[in-house]
UniProtKB/TrEMBL annotation:
Gene that this polypeptide is encoded by: LOC120268867
Residues given in the record as ATP binding sites: K660
Enzyme class: transferase
The EC number(s) this enzyme carries: 2.7.11.1
Classification via Gene3D superfamilies: Phosphorylase Kinase, domain 1, Ribonuclease Inhibitor, Transferase(Phosphotransferase) domain 1
Entry protein name: non-specific serine/threonine protein kinase
Source organism of this protein record: Dioscorea cayennensis subsp. rotundata
Lineage: Eukaryota, Viridiplantae, Streptophyta, Embryophyta, Tracheophyta
PANTHER family the UniProt entry points to: LEUCINE-RICH REPEAT PROTEIN KINASE FAMILY PROTEIN, RECEPTOR-LIKE PROTEIN 55
Residues annotated as signal peptide: 1-22
Amino acid sequence: MAKFTGILLFLVCLSGFHVCFGNTDPQDVAALRSLMEQWQNTPSAWGQTDDPCGTAWQGITCTGSRVVTLILSNQNIQGTLSGDIGQLSQLQTLDLSLNGGLGGPLTENIGNLKQLTSLSLQNCSFTGSIPGVLGSLSKLSFLALNSNQFSGTIPASLGNLSNVYWLDLSYNQLSGQLPISSGTSPGLDLLVHTQHFHFNQNNLSGTIPEKLFSSQMQLIHILFDGNNFTGEIPASIGLVNSLEALRLDRNGFSGPVPSSIANLTNLHELNLANNKLTGLMPNLTGMSSLNYVDLSNNTFNRSETPLWFSTLDTLTSLVVSYGRLSGPVPQKLFSLPQIQQVILDNNEFTGTLGMGSNISSHLQTVNFENNNISLFTPPPNFHGIIMLHGNEVCETVSVLKNTIYCSDHPQALTPYSTSLASCGSSSCSSGLSVRPLSCNCACPLTGMLTFRAPYFSDVTNSTVFQDLENQLWQNLSLSPGSVYLENPFFDENSYMQVQVKLFPPTGTSFNQSEVSRISSQLGQQNEFKPPKIFGPYLFTANPYPCLDNQSGGSSLSKGAAAGIAAGCAIVLLTLIGMGIYAFRQKRRAERATEISKPFAAWASTKGVDGVPQLKGARWFTFDELTKITNNFAEMNEIGAGGYGKVYKGQLTNGQVVAIKRAQAGSLQGAAEFKTEIELLSRVHHKNLVGLVGFCFEQGEQMLVYEFISNGTLRENLSAENGKQQLDWMKRLKIALGSARGLAYLHELADPPIIHRDIKSANILLDKLLNAKVADFGLSKLVSDAEKGHVSTQVKGTLGYLDPEYYMTQLLTEKSDVYSYGVVMLELITGKPPLHKGKYIVREVRLALNMMGEDPYCGLEDMVDTVIRNSETLIAFKSFVQLAMLCVEETGARRPKMNQVVKEIELMLQSDGFQIEPESEPSSATDFYREAGVGTALHGHLYNDQQLPTKEASSSGFDYSGAYALSTKIEPK
Ligand SMILES: *[C@@H]1O[C@H](CO)[C@@H](O)[C@H](O)[C@H]1NC(C)=O
Ligand SMILES: *[C@@H]1O[C@H](CO)[C@@H](O)[C@H](O)[C@H]1NC(C)=O
Ligand SMILES: *[C@@H]1O[C@H](CO)[C@@H](O)[C@H](O)[C@H]1NC(C)=O
C-alpha cells in the first residue's frame, strides 16, 4: 500500500513536473543552491522557489530549462565559488565581478563550462593558480581575471583560446615567463584573434620571445607594464600593425629599442619608461598616430633632441625625464598643434628656454626642472604651468628667483569636475549627493574608472570629459545628468583615474539588479566604450550603500508554489535516490552571525537608515585584511597606541594602506563605529589623511587609511630614522598644511569636527612633505543642538591639552587651536612639549616676558639647532606671535583656525612664495575686517610689514618688490 502511494505520488509529480521544478533543470537548481550555501548576501530573490528560470532569480537568465547567464556583479557576495558551478553546463556568461569578499582558489570544475563565452571574475579575491582547464573553454571570447590574488605562471593552455579577444590578467601576483608554443604545446603566440593583452601589475619575468608577435596578430592594446621582464624588446613587435597602445614601462628591458617600432603607425601611446634601455633614443619619425610618449629613466646615449620631437604633429604628451638630453630646447615643440604636456626634467638642456610666439593653445604643463637652462623669459598670455626649479636661471636671474617658475613646490591644475553650478548651494543629507542637472538628492553608485593608456594628459579639458559623461549615461541606459565625474588625475603608474558617480535616472536609489547590471556592463566592457582617446579602462566600484530594503518579493502564491514544489521534490528525490544531492557541498556554510555581515547587520536593525552612508570608502572583509597584513604579522606593524595597533599592507590594486585595528578594550558599539566611519568617509581634504575603508566583522573593528610615506612630524623633528632635517621654509609649509586641514574640520566639514588630539605625532608627512592631519579617533561632531561647545569627558594628550578645556570640560574648536599652538612651538624648538620636566608653553612665555626690548632675543637658546644658524628665518617673529596667541589661556582670545591659515599664508607670501590658493585666495582685507582677536593679529602683521625684520634685510630682500612681481606673473 505504501509502495502504491509512493508510485502514485511519483506519477503525480511526473505529470506535474512543471510544478515540481518549474521550468528549470533540477541539476541547475541544485547547482545554484549549492552556490548559495557558500555565499553570504545573495540577492533576496534567490532561493525563494526551485524555479530560477520561471520565477526570475536575480541575475539568472535561461534558454529553455537551462541556465545560460549568471551575473551578480558588485553584490557584496562573500564566500567561495563552489565546485558545483561546473554543473551549470550550459552557462554562457558568468560574471561575479566586483565582489571583494568572494575568493579562495578557482575550482577546476570551471573547465566543465564548455559553452562559456564570457567569464568575468575581476576585482574579487581569488587565490592560487589560474586553472589550466580554462584553456579548454574553446568558445571563450572574454576572459577577465584581473585584480585578484592569482599566483603562479600563466598556463600555456590559454594559447588554445582561439576565440578570445579580451584577455585581462592584470593586477595579480603572476610570475614566470610568458608561455610560447613549441611542438604540440600551446602558447600565447597562437592567440591571433586577441585584441587585448592586459598583463600589467604582476611579477612576470624573463624575456619576451620574438615568436610572441607576428603579422597575423590583431592586438590593439599591449599592457605589460609593472612587471619584471628583462632582455631586449623583440623586433617582431613592429609587425603588429594594429597596435594602438604599447606599455612596457616599469620593467627591466635592456638593449636598444628595435627600429621596427617606428612601423607601428597606428600607435597612440608608447610608454617605455623606467627600463634599462640603451643605445640611441629611438627614432619615432613616421609614427603618424602617436599622441603620448614616455621614454623616461632609461640609459640611452647622451644626445641632443631627436628631430621627431618637433615634427610629430600628433603629439599631446612628451615625457622624457632623466633622458640624458642636452643642447638647446627646440622651440617648435611648444607649437605642435595638439601638444598639452612637455616633461623634460632632469636632462642636460642648456641655453635659452624660448617657447616662441606660437605656443599651442592646448599646452598646459612644461617641466624643465634640473637642467642647465640659463635664460628664460616668461611667455606673455600663457596660462599653463612652467617649472624651472634647479636650473642656472633660477640662481642667476634675481627677478625669477622667488617666482613660481623657480619654486620647488609644484603647482597643480584644477582638474575637471562635472558642474553643479546650476544647483546653487543645494546640499543633501549624508549618503546622498546632488544629482547634476535635476539637482535633487539621490544615492549614486560610486567607483573609479582607471584609464590605463590614455592618449592625452590634460585633466582640465571639459570637452573631453563631457564626452565621457554623455557616452556613459547613453550606453548605460541612464539619463542626462546621471553622471558626475570628479578629480581626474594621473597616478604614479601613469594611469588616469577618474572618480565617477552614477545616479538613478528616476527616484533616489538603484535597486539591486540595476547595480549589478551597470557594474557588469562597465566591467565586461560590452556596453560602455569610452571615447577612443581614453584608451583601455577598468571599473572598480564601491559596494552600493542604499539598497531599498527589500521588496520582500514573495507573494503568497509564490510561497505556496514553492511549498508544493519542495514537497514534490522530496518525494521525487526519495524515489530516484540521493543522486542530485551528491554533488552538493556537504559543508553547509554555518550561518554566520549577523555581525559578520556588516551591511546586513546594520540594515536589519534599523531599516535603510541602518546602512552606513559612506562617501568613497569601501568595506573590507576580515580575511582580506588578514591577507594583506600577512596575518597581522609583527613585521607589518607600524605603530601602536591605547586603541590597538597599526599595520601596513598593500591592496590588490597596489595602494598602500595603514590599518588601524582596535583591541579588545577600545572596541565601540556598532552604532558608534558606524557613526565614526560615516564621519570619516565624508572628510576629504588634501591635508587630512583619507579613509580608504573599514572592516566590521568577526568582532573586529578596523579602519583602513591611506598610507603616508614620510612618517610623523614628531619623527621628522627628532630626525629619527635618518629622516631629512626640516628647514624653516619646510616648517612653515607644514604649519600651513596642518592649519588648513584643521580649518577644514572646523569650518567646512558638515557637521563640523573637533579633532581633540592635535599633536606632532598626529601630523603625517607625505613624499613632498605635505602635512596631513591624522587620527580623528577621538573626534567629536559639533551638532547643531549644542553648537559652540560640547561637554564631554576630557581626552587628549598631555602637553597639548587646552587648560581651559581641562578645567571646564567644555570642548570647543579653540581647544584644537591651543594644541595646534603647541605644535607651532615644537616647530620652533624642535623639542616635544614636555621635555626634561619643562613645559614648552611656559618656557617660551617666560623667555619672552623676561626680555623687554627685543623679546625675541630671549628665544635664541630655545630655537632648534637645525634652523638656528640658517641665514633667514622668514617671518619668524610673526610665527612666534601667532603661536603665543594660539596658546592663550582663554579660548576666546585665541584665533580661529582660518585666521591662522591666512596669517601663515601671508608669512609665506612675504617670501614671494606662491601658495596655491585652496579655493578662493584668502584676502588680507577680509582678515582685517575680523574683529576681536583678528585686530590683535592685524597689529602684529602690520609691524612686520612696515619694519623689515633683521633677517629680511640681511638677505637683501625687498618685500614690496617681490610681492608685486609675484602678483603680476602669477599664472591663472
Ligand atoms: C626581477 O628579476 C630579477 C632577476 O631576473 C630578480 O633578481 C628580482 O628579484 C626580480 N624582482 C622581483 C620584484 O621579483
Ligand atoms: C617596416 O615595414 C616594412 C613593410 O612592412 C618593412 O619592409 C620594413 O622592413 C619594416 N621596417 C622595420 C624597421 O622593420
Ligand atoms: C629617422 O627615421 C626617418 C624615417 O625613417 C629617417 O628619414 C631619418 O633619417 C631618421 N633619423 C635618424 C637620425 O636616424
